[in-house]
Amino acid sequence: MNEVAYSNAPTAHVNPGPVTRDMRTTDVSQGSQFVGMGKDLYDAYDAARKVVDEADDALEGTLKKVMFEGSQEDLTRTENAQPAILTTSIAMLRVLETERGFKMDQSCKYALGHSLGEYSALVATGSLTLRDAVKLVRLRGQAMTKAVTDKGTTAMSALVVRPAKLEELIKAMEDIQRSLPSGELAEIANINSTFQVVISGTVKGVDHASRALQAKKIAARAVDLPVSAPFHCSLMQPAADAMQAALKDVHFEKPSISVISNVTAKPIEKVEDISDLLVRQVTGTVQWHDSIHRLRSDYNVHDYVSLGPGKVLANLLRKEYPLDLVKTVTTVEDVKEWQL
Hints:
This protein has 340 residues and is of the alpha/beta class. The protein has 2 domains: 3-147 and 234-336, Malonyl-Coenzyme A Acyl Carrier Protein, domain 2; 154-224, Malonyl-CoA ACP transacylase, ACP-binding (Alpha-Beta Plaits, 2-Layer Sandwich), CATH 3.30.70. The protein has 15 helices and 9 strands. It has helices spanning 39-44, 46-58, 64-68, 72-76, 78-100, 104-107, 117-124, 130-147, 166-179, 203-215, 237-247, 274-283, 288-299, 312-320, 332-336, and strands spanning 25-27, 110-112, 154-161, 186-193, 196-202, 219-224, 258-259, 303-307, 325-329. It has a 5-stranded parallel sheet, with helices on both faces. Helix 2 runs antiparallel to helix 5 and helix 9 (166-179) crosses helix 10. The radius of gyration is 19 Å and the shape is globular. The protein starts with 24 loop residues before the first strand and ends with a helix. Residues 1-22 are annotated as: Disordered. It is an enzyme of class 2 (transferase). This is [acyl-carrier-protein] S-malonyltransferase. Pfam families: Acyl_transf_1 (PF00698).
């Protein structure tokens, strides 16, 4: 799985307890896009309409129609899916704020998002404006697709990791890459949990790596992903270069709460580091598993609120840590039933 395989979510992680609500996290990623997502919120709440209309205006009227009336094929194009998922997630957050009194800086302590969701986390924490964010992720999607137009056939594959084999898989991937013929590539794109890893690269490289990991009894099976580009690997360097140029002109504020970086799995300490981390994220591995593990082990975070058009990240958390509390908000009904 890659960006287009995950639900986008400002996820809030909270320390359990009847009174203490000071250790929460928000998580915001690409993947569960569907035509009409967010339409129920748009029709029901002014706050959602303001978000969607602002994003649509920032993209010169090219977003809302694709989100609400376009074809699934058009919406799934990376340049549309990324701003659409970001917009839907922020619309949900704004509705919670205006209708249910949710306050990010009071209810949450940490914010994070999977891949493009990192931009959503920055918007959710006031570090990045919505207008800048949707423009950046539109450019990001275009640049990612363009980066491999002349690179031949590429692929991504989701691996089901056998129990207690994650570290062995990471080491084996280093050896596999060194053994591949010149021009072939297989790199780890996402480490999503102890049982799920995504690899990215050329078709031959990814196929060889998948077969080798299964032969070594490290991976139980592999599932090819229907994606337009091999995200989060070195083939995306041209896209990283494009983002570096674009981010030079973008202003970031200090986030209202700590934002966890995808590439370091640590809180971002300096505002001036944000641009570089977003550039590195384009080619680097999304360290989702390490991010969640560090929140739990170092900061005693065990509760989450996941906002977005799908529940993939929430389901990952529930499977990995069944005793943790994971709340999801994806529809108007979720908003109406909201209790923190």
